[in-house]
Amino acid sequence: MRRTLFMSAILATALAASVNAQSFTHDPANIPIPDSNPAGVNIPFAVAGLAGGVIEVHVHFSPSHTWVGDLIMRLTDPNGVTVTLIDRPRFPELTFGSNSDFLNARFQSTGTDPETHGGNFNSTGLGTIFRAHLGSIDDFNADVNGNWNLFISDNEGGDTGSFDKITITTPEPASMLALGAGLAGVALRRRKK
Ligand SMILES: [Ca+2]
Ligand SMILES: [Ca+2]
Ligand SMILES: [Ca+2]
Questions:
Q1: What separation in Å is there between the alpha carbon of 185 and the centre of ligand 3?
Q2: Boundaries of every domain in the chain
Q3: Ligand found nearest the CA of 152
Q4: Residue 135: phi, psi to the nearest 5?
Q5: What is the pTM of this model?
Q6: Ligand 2 centre from 126 Cα, in Å?
Q7: Which of 39, 81, 114, 163 could form a disulfide with 86 if both were Cys (CB 3.0 to 4.6 A apart)?
């Protein structure tokens, strides 16, 4: 019994480590987005230590931007693939686009199109999961390690916000999954004795 618990603890540790190893966060001092300036700001960052395709991109603002319909965000990977995460949600459907706040958004391969989203952009907890508006995060399917660029622009005057951080997540490495399965098998065999 004691051994089973020990092996289970190792398994849990291995799985937790693999999850941690597969996220990369770029968290600089917060960057104000220039108001009403289509030239925007480029936020370059270098990813290391990841493997496989991207399963989630998570963008945070702090404090929130108070009018998401002002914002365009494009993410470019080390291979030069550019995906448009949002492009002034609900503009030009509404004259100034969606007046909702942008707090943070988790982009996955499937989810709500930002263009049609009515409420605040908040993916915390059970909050809304988005897909990219143009292209898909599945397009980031080659080696993800290297130099990325997040472009953000604010295209109308008045409301403003600051970029906080971005997290790129890839699947658990196959080797870690195999190790986890192997340890689970050991724990099960021990339990039967
Ligand atoms: Ca739009
Ligand atoms: Ca603005
Ligand atoms: Ca930050």
A1: 42
A2: 1-22+172-193, 23-171
A3: 2
A4: 80, -170
A5: 0.81
A6: 28
A7: 114
